[in-house]
Amino acid sequence: MLRLLTLELLLAFLVLIFFHPLTTNAATATAITQQFKEAPQFYNSPDCPSFDQDEIDSESDGDSTIFCSDKAVHVAMTLDAAYIRGSMAAVLSVLQHSSCPQNIAFHFVASASANSSLLRNTISSSFPYLKFRVYTFDDASVSRLISTSIRSALDCPLNYARSYLANILPICVRRVVYLDSDLVLVDDIAKLAATPLGEKSILAAPEYCNANFTSYFTPTFWSNPSLSLTFADRKACYFNTGVMVIDLNRWRAGDYTTKIEEWMELQKRMRIYELGSLPPFLLVFAGNIVPVDHRWNQHGLGGDNFRGLCRDLHPGPVSLLHWSGKGKPWARLDANRPCPLDALWAPYDLLQTPFALDS
């Protein structure tokens, strides 16, 4: 009996020493060893604006001027190992459908705890000619303000980086198009970037006034007059923060990051919403944005936040496909359980599979 017990303990010890570390390292290796194909280079059409010599800054490495030029289309995206496959597809789609791809400046925001050098090298390997910079986001500072939501993925501090773009990006960047990583464009991003913001609006985004706006906040919020009166003087509608055109100068002047943080601090004291980084945006901006044509956000292709069921396209023209929701096309394709519309994402997938033949 004692000999049997000793044998069982020995086996348990061996499993603990050998099997567990292998499992952990395999998970880590997946994020590190994922390799991507090199994308083709895309060139400007003849009528694209050129950058004047007097626009070139003192650093002047040939490309540095684009990051402060108003003639460039500035695109901001977050970047992390978990979603980098989606980010790569999004970048490829932007370049492929742009009439002036060499006039696009990409501003990637990565967590301070991430391996930014690895992320930078991954982008450079697939897009050797891409004009981009990677900025560090101090996610520890925002972590203290985050409350748990209905889906753990929504609690990632990097989801809140869009609230800090005015602080992260260079002061010379006046307007930026913010894009989520789970989308692809099938139209020229310059059209979206040129969305008129009028004399006072801070941002433009796809707005959905048929959505049940009250559902984005808790009964605690609506039953408190001092809180619910927040929307008293505006026609507040839900809008999608995964596709936005932002005037960063106006954002900075109004200190809107602080306004968003104030609502997050209140949320820590009393639960007034359930859905991650979206509700603070609604509290500050809903009813005061410029609506973007819905063609720029064929949204919900990832299904709902619970099951991620397949969905169809909404009626109307399409300029951008957005897999918002729980299901992501790359995950469903890898699991051999794709939704029909995931086939529209697949052509932009740059993942180098083990079975791919060298061209």
Automatic annotation (TrEMBL):
It is a single-pass type II membrane protein. It comes from the Eukaryota. SUPFAM superfamilies: Nucleotide-diphospho-sugar transferases (SSF53448). It holds the Pfam family Glyco_transf_8. Its EC number is 2.4.1.-. GO terms for cellular component: Golgi apparatus. Residues 1-26 form the signal peptide. GO terms for molecular function: glycosyltransferase activity. Pathway: Glycan metabolism; pectin biosynthesis. It is found in: Endomembrane system. Keywords: Glycoprotein, Glycosyltransferase, Membrane, Signal, Signal-anchor, Transferase, Transmembrane, Transmembrane helix. Belongs to the glycosyltransferase 8 family. PANTHER family: GALACTURONOSYLTRANSFERASE-LIKE 1-RELATED, GLYCOSYLTRANSFERASE 8 DOMAIN-CONTAINING PROTEIN. This is Hexosyltransferase. It comes from Hevea brasiliensis.
